[in-house]
Prior knowledge:
This protein has five helices and four strands, in the order E-H-E-H-E-H-H-E-H.
Amino acid sequence: xxxxxxxxxxxxxxxxxxxxxxxxxxxxxxxxxxxxxxxxxxxxxxxxxxxxxxxxxxxxxxxxxxxxxxxxxxxxxxxxxxxxxxxxxxxxxxxxxxxxxxxxxxx
Length: 107
């Protein structure tokens, strides 16, 4: 697997990530979020796939399929439309799984 990072979301939320080397995958149709994630994850070129929280919520069923797999890591981040706390919640979950305790947010 190549060590590349992708980000999936609406154009306004993700366009700046191209400047830091992320592959941007534009998705403006929430109904297609799951299939777009599946395509990105199954071609095995990404170690991390970020999704805007809105995309993550729309593709939650598909995201769960990759939860127990080591790669790619599927990580929600806030988009331009706001933050619903999902990114923080998932990061806390990942940290707790990795080290056995939530050392960042201490929940």
